[in-house]
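Bumping my old thread because nobody answered last time. Still need a sequence for this structure:
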């Protein structure tokens, strides 16, 4: 068969198309597949054939004055292609993106980014799947690779590689294995939370032992069945590589184990004995770290210890007040009584002063129920070794009720509801010692906000876990954890909700009904 000049041109054009499609696939998908290899080979073969068959024609582009226009076009095209390839290669190395969703559900969280950025040794993630479409998992795993090039992954078909699956104990598809050095961890599913926790556990060499004090009516840390239990917190602590234990003082041995990194006293309901308080005090004085979750209207015997560390507990209860609407006032007036404002024990905490613990929680909120306020002790003499810092405050709509007998017995509040308005401190940090060697105490005026009922409300989990990470000197754990996608909603205060209900359920339907009757009557 005799080739015409147009045949050579078609061959050259086809070769260029094959080469460009192969290069584009590799740059976009970031993988060298059989498709890329075939396109590269075909492109090179066709392009080489075209150049070999048209040496004279190609050379004229660069030597003939009549072909300067074609020469310029060829050079410009080559430069554009080169720039496109360079930009793609650069973007592959220096990735930058911005997740515009409200809860950052289209990218890995700040917590995950911090957890993987410091890793210096290679990590490989094996996903055992028979599904040909793993786009969701690939998108997630690519995100980890963007923040640390030492993290790689591959998909393994357990039916074609039964020995590899058996080696890691894989029993069903969808499971994944995180390998690091000589160890590995098996995951049931591939989610951001599970991956980040597995990477943290397998790479972290520091061990933190958390002890929950029991025996004074505190929340039970391994209780998963009741709202007051701490079972969800227990699981969260273990997933972030904390070793969690329960501790109960057994007379006459009042001591805290030597391996205790953090002691947590969560909502005690009965008094501590003098020996128990002494044990906690000595633990702090020897460089210990303690988190106190102390509810209102409860005497624990720890008040003096907390005061010695620069924190004064208020004998109050924070609450929001719902003022009666116009309709409620009218109904009450017709019955000869006066509508009274109603107290609400659940309060929003969204004022976080500048601190390492709350740096990632700006414009976020914590939901607390039956909380107390506190304040730094006014020191007569400056103590350079003691520093007290605010961590969280109630909103300016909050109210501090000091008449607790009437509040908890009859749900009545005092007449002067404006004398102690927020913002008021609900969490304080006290540090004693030098920056290199110090003791730390965090006091929070509510123990319910991390129980099973409220743990996943708003950003309760993040606030508490950040407090824990700070006092255990794990800066990489201070962040906002992965969020779950949920329906968008607007949060209103009780007064606004009352007005919305009145307008939407009562006023507007009433006006429409009146207008309808009027129009029907006029047209009958």
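Sorry it took so long. Here it is:
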């Amino acid at each position: 068969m005799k080739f015409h000049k147009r045949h050579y041109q078609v061959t050259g054009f086809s070769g260029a198309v094959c080469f460009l499609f192969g290069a584009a696939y590799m740059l976009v998908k970031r993988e060298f597949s059989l498709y890329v290899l075939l396109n590269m080979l075909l492109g090179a073969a066709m392009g080489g054939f075209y150049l070999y068959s048209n040496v004279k024609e190609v050379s004229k582009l660069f030597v003939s004055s009549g072909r300067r226009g074609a020469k310029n076009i060829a050079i410009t095209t080559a430069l554009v292609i080169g720039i496109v390839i360079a930009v793609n290669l650069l973007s592959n190395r220096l990735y930058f993106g911005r997740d515009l969703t409200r809860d950052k559900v289209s990218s890995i969280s700040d917590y995950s980014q911090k957890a993987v950025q410091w890793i210096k040794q290679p990590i490989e993630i094996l996903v055992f799947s028979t599904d040909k479409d793993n786009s969701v998992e690939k998108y997630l795993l690519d995100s980890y690779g963007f923040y640390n090039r030492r993290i790689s992954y591959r998909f393994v078909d357990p039916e074609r590689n039964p020995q590899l699956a058996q080696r890691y104990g894989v029993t069903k598809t969808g499971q994944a294995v995180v390998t690091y050095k000589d160890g590995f961890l098996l995951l049931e599913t591939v989610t951001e939370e599970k991956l980040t926790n597995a990477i943290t556990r397998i790479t972290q060499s520091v061990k933190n032992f958390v002890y929950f004090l029991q025996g004074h009516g505190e929340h039970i840390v391994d209780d998963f069945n009741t709202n007051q239990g701490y079972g969800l917190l227990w699981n969260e602590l273990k997933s972030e590589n904390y070793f969690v234990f329960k501790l109960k003082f057994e007379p006459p041995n009042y001591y805290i184990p030597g391996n205790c990194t953090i002691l947590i006293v969560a909502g005690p309901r009965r008094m501590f004995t003098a020996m128990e308080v002494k044990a906690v005090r000595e633990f702090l004085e020897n460089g210990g770290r303690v988190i106190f979750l102390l509810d209102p209207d409860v005497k624990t015997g720890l008040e003096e210890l907390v005061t010695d560390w620069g924190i004064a507990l208020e004998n109050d209860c924070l609450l929001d007040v719902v003022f009666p609407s116009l309709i409620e006032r009218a109904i009450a007036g017709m019955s000869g009584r006066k509508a009274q404002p109603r107290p609400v024990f659940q309060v929003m905490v969204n004022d976080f002063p500048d601190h390492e613990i709350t740096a990632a929680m700006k414009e976020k909120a914590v939901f607390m129920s039956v909380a107390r306020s506190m304040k730094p002790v006014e020191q007569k003499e400056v103590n350079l070794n003691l520093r007290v810092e605010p961590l969280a405050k109630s909103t300016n709509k909050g109210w501090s009720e000091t008449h607790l007998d009437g509040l908890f017995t009859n749900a009545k509040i005092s007449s002067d509801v404006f004398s102690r308005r927020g913002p008021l401190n609900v969490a304080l940090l006290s540090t004693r010692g030098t920056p290199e060697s110090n003791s730390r105490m965090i006091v929070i005026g509510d123990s319910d906000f991390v129980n099973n009922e409220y743990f996943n409300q708003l950003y309760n989990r993040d606030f508490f876990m950040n407090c824990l990470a700070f006092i255990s000197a794990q800066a990489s754990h201070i962040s906002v954890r992965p969020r779950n996608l949920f329906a968008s909603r607007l949060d209103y205060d009780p007064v606004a909700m009352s007005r919305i209900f009145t307008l939407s359920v009562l006023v507007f339907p009433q006006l429409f009904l009146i207008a309808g009757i009027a129009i029907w009557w006029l047209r009958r």
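DSSP finds 15 helices and 18 strands in the chain. Let me know if any region looks off to you.
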